[in-house]
Structure formats: C-alpha cells, structure tokens
User: Fold JAB domain-containing protein from Clostridium novyi A str. 4552.
Amino acid sequence: MKINSNNIEIKICSSVFQVMKKYIQLGAGSLEAGGILIGKENISDDNIIIRYITEPYASDKRRYNKFIRKDKRHIDIFNEVFNSSNEIYCYIGEWHTHDEDLPDYSRLDLKNWKKIMKESPGNIEHFHIIVGSKAIRIWKFGKLLKNPDLIKTIYWKDVVDFDKKTDW
Assistant:
C-alpha cells in the first residue's frame, strides 16, 4: 500500500499488514502486541519502504493496555536484516496494538517515542504505527517536531495487496 504525505511516499508491504492483522485486539482478554518496523529510505526522493516487522516474543511484556519490547530477538532480527542487506534496511520505528477501533497514542506511547527520539542520532524522524480493530494509524515523530504528526489513518477494509503490484 502506498501512502503519500508531505511529498514523501511510504510503501508498506502486505506481509507487514498480515503480521499486524494477526494481533488485532478484540476485547478485554486480548493483549497488546508490537515490535520494530524495518525498512529503507530512498535517498534520491526520501520515500520510505516498510518491508519487515518483528512480532511479540516470549520475553516481551504484554498486557491488555501495555506492550514493552524486552525480548532480544527483536534486535537480533533487526541486526540480521541490516547486515544481510549491506546496511540498506534500517530501523524505521515501532508498531503496537490498542484495543480501540480507531487507535490513538497514549501518554506511555508518547514517553516511549520521546525516548527513541532522544537516543537517535541527528534529526532523524521515525514512524510509529498503532493497530486498531478497524484501522491502523501512522505517526511521524522526531526532534524537529513538537508533537507527533498523524500522517495517515488506513482502514483495514482499504488495505490492498501491495506486493503483487510492485517489482522489488
């Protein structure tokens, strides 16, 4: 799926949507899930491709209203993709679920995004995705932004099979 925002095109592969869809929270018994977004930036036009994501693992902290990425496998998978791609694929941001139809970020989410921003070199902006039961929402956040910038709401019914239309 292609998303256009402020002259930047973000492409999200269908395999990424498929993983996220597995973890949609539906009710009080469901737990938040999340992981790392891995992709690449086309230097010539600033376009972003989100190609891979990590999934929740055994050591992650999962609650109804909280996901804390603790399992080292997230970093191991990131390093494997980063190294095997000759450092082309990089950290794009984080994703997680909320038990909401149309999710919004929480104070804890904002605190985590600010921590990521502080630990990032330079003025890099990251993308953060929150998955709800009816839609996913994408925010951009970095040192040059005072607040997270909601760049897109994508309803699940509108998700198309991007991989079949693209030559990778």
